[in-house]
Design a protein that fits this description.
The protein has no helices and 6 strands. Strand 1 and strand 2 form a beta hairpin. The chain is globular.
Length: about 80
């Protein structure tokens, strides 16, 4: 993890450095289990979602490459009907 902690209006924020200049940014967490400088394994839990409006948690996900936003859709599985 490159960064783990509170950040501006995002609340708890986690930035993970992947390969080839990619970074994953996650926000919407109520608890962080990953610390700055920690090496993370694929599938390893990194935190717990915060309870959002109406009891629904919301995750903010951003994929960046060399500092620029990238569409994360190709990295994600197919959308589930009714998700969102």
């Amino acid at each position: 993890a490159v960064f783990s902690g509170p950040f501006r209006s995002y609340g708890l924020l986690l930035i993970v450095e992947c390969s080839d200049g990619h970074h994953v940014v996650l926000a919407g967490l109520g608890r962080l289990d990953a610390t700055t400088g920690a090496r993370l394994l694929a599938g390893e839990p990194v935190g717990v979602m915060a309870e959002g409006e109406g009891g629904r948690a919301r995750l903010y996900l951003e994929l960046r490459r060399e500092g620029r936003p990238v569409d994360p859709q190709p990295w994600l599985g197919p959308a589930r009907p009714g998700a969102g």
